[in-house]
Write a structure and sequence with these properties.
cell cycle; transmembrane helix; FtsL/DivIC; transmembrane; mainly alpha; cell division
């Protein structure tokens, strides 16, 4: 304890309380901000938006490619079916265009007769 300068101990305690109160009023409140600054938040938001946009673009391209592949497969099936149909029609043409068949139908159903002097044979 300090020595008694003022002579009265009660006066000394009052002065210490008064000086303590003054010290408390001079103390400034410092607010500490926790969290992320606004600029950094905007940067994160922009980054997330860019990632979402790029992902959406890539997914839309994959969907488009899948659609094209589906269309290609369908077209291949149609082409194969058409080739088979063409083959069967060629066989039918060959069968129906045989000379013996035509001659038989002409003689039996149409009553035609063949004169060898006027017949011309064309080959293909």
């Amino acid at each position: 304890m300090r020595g008694n300068q003022y002579g009265n101990l009660a006066v000394q305690l009052k002065q210490e309380h008064a000086s303590g109160a003054k010290r408390k009023s001079k103390v400034e409140k410092v607010t500490v901000k926790y969290g992320i600054p606004v600029e950094e938040k905007l940067l994160y938001l922009l980054s997330v938006i860019m990632v979402v946009c790029i992902s959406g673009f890539i997914l839309s391209r994959y969907a488009l490619i899948s659609q094209f592949n589906y269309d290609i497969e369908n077209t291949k099936e149609v082409i194969n079916t058409t080739h088979e149909e063409n083959s069967s029609l060629r066989l039918k043409i060959d069968e129906l265009s045989k000379r013996e068949r035509i001659l038989d139908i002409a003689q039996r159903e149409l009553g035609m007769t063949m004169k060898n002097s006027t017949v011309r044979v064309l080959s293909h």
